[in-house]
Design a protein that fits this description.
With 349 residues, this protein is α+β, with helices and mostly antiparallel strands. 62% of the residues lie in helices and 11% in strands. The protein has helices at 12-36, 47-74, 81-106, 117-192, 197-213, 222-240, 263-274, 312-325, and strands at 220-221, 244-248, 257-259, 283-289, 294-300, 330-333, 337-343, 345-347. The strands form two sheets. The chain has a five-stranded mixed beta sheet with strand order 2-4-5-7-6, covered by helices on one side. A three-stranded antiparallel beta sheet has the order 1-3-8. Strand 4 (283-289) and strand 5 form a beta hairpin. The two termini are 31 Å apart.
């Protein structure tokens, strides 16, 4: 994004704007003070006086801007506020007095003899210093706000870039994990059901094609994830038969919601890995949506003995949800049932 633009930035246009505004301030103050002391505010009568006022005001203003730029490098506001304030005021005062003194000495000698010269000069210098100080303070404040906004945008952009980078790392963790489990199942299928190995291999290809297509997506429609899950379940049912029963109770109106890709597969794989399953005592897995806009996956508990778990699957799903939506998955365990609840993300319809 382009850097913030203000009248404090370098360049011809910002400088001309500042000079024009400060010159108008100088002329208005000079006319006001002249009228205050019943002196004709005619710049043609004594043009040098008006010119010196305009030049002096601009020198004070531009000098303060230069001082501000120098101090920005040597004593930034964010790190040394008190020291910076003292330095800013001190150098601004010194510069203003120096410019005022030079302009005062540059006046024609006959001007000193005019009535109320001293009082009018003091008022012009005082008003000029105050108004120029206010004008410059407004510029500094505007510049600080614009820079702060730009900093916030840059920090947010860095956060988003880091978020996407971390998310890709998590997704890449799934590839070898998923492939290892699929090939383990394929080896088992070839061993126990060689006549179905060709169909199993085709389904495996469909499953892995989905994985490759969605590897760069942060979320996918639930409808697509469920279609992928059907192929994934087929791979397991080819080996387990009636020992695995999966019931899908998700309504059509919920399928347009988003979900991180492979979330359902990881939850299902977790249930299959940690539970015994047989034709007599099948592993039953149900999927249903809740009124709170969540997806609940439950299975009956038939825990296996001596199953080593790395925790990669569910931890990966949990971390991706936290990154995407600041939400976490929920787990619920009873004596005979284990449930995992996944938040459904924004509806694309």
């Amino acid at each position: 994004k382009n850097p913030p633009v203000s009248m404090l930035t370098g360049g011809v246009k910002p400088t001309l704007k500042r000079v024009l505004i400060v010159s108008l301030i100088g002329l208005m103050i000079t006319v006001f003070v002249s009228m205050l002391f019943d002196v004709s505010p005619n710049p043609f009568k004594n043009p040098l006086s008006f010119a010196l006022v305009v030049v002096g005001f601009n020198l004070i203003s531009e000098g303060n801007i230069v001082i501000n730029r120098i101090l920005d490098k040597k004593a930034p506001w964010f790190f040394r506020i008190r020291q910076r304030t003292r330095r800013q005021l001190l150098w601004s005062l010194i510069w203003s007095i120096l410019v005022a003194g030079i302009c005062f000495l540059a006046l024609p000698s006959d001007v000193y003899e005019e009535k109320n010269f001293f009082r009018s000069s003091v008022l012009i210098i005082t008003f000029g210093f105050i108004f120029v100080l206010i004008f410059n303070s407004i510029l500094f404040l505007q510049s600080a706000i614009l820079n702060w906004k730009q900093s916030v945008l840059e920090v947010e952009a860095l956060k988003q870039a880091k978020l996407q980078s971390d998310y890709k790392v998590l997704q890449n963790q799934l590839n070898p994990h998923f492939l290892f489990n699929c090939f383990s199942t394929l080896i088992s299928e070839i061993h126990y059901n060689p006549e179905q190995a060709a169909e199993f291999t085709q389904k495996l290809a469909d499953v892995y094609r989905y994985l490759l297509q969605k590897r760069n997506d942060m979320t996918v429609p639930l409808r697509e994830e469920l279609s992928f899950l059907n192929d994934f379940i087929f791979l397991h049912k080819s080996r387990m038969g009636e020992a695995l029963i999966v019931e899908n109770r998700i309504g059509e109106d919920q399928k347009s919601y988003q979900i991180p890709p492979l979330s359902l597969q990881m939850v299902m794989e977790n249930a299959i890995k940690h539970n015994r399953a047989s034709t007599k005592n099948p592993l039953r897995i149900t999927l249903e949506s809740t009124e709170k806009g969540e997806l609940k996956i439950c299975n009956n508990l038939q825990p296996k003995n001596n199953v080593h778990s790395t925790g990669t699957g569910l931890d990966n799903v949990s971390r991706r949800y936290k990154m995407l939506a600041g939400k976490d998955i929920k787990t619920e365990k009873t004596n005979d049932r284990y449930c995992i609840t996944l938040p459904l993300l924004g509806d694309n319809n």
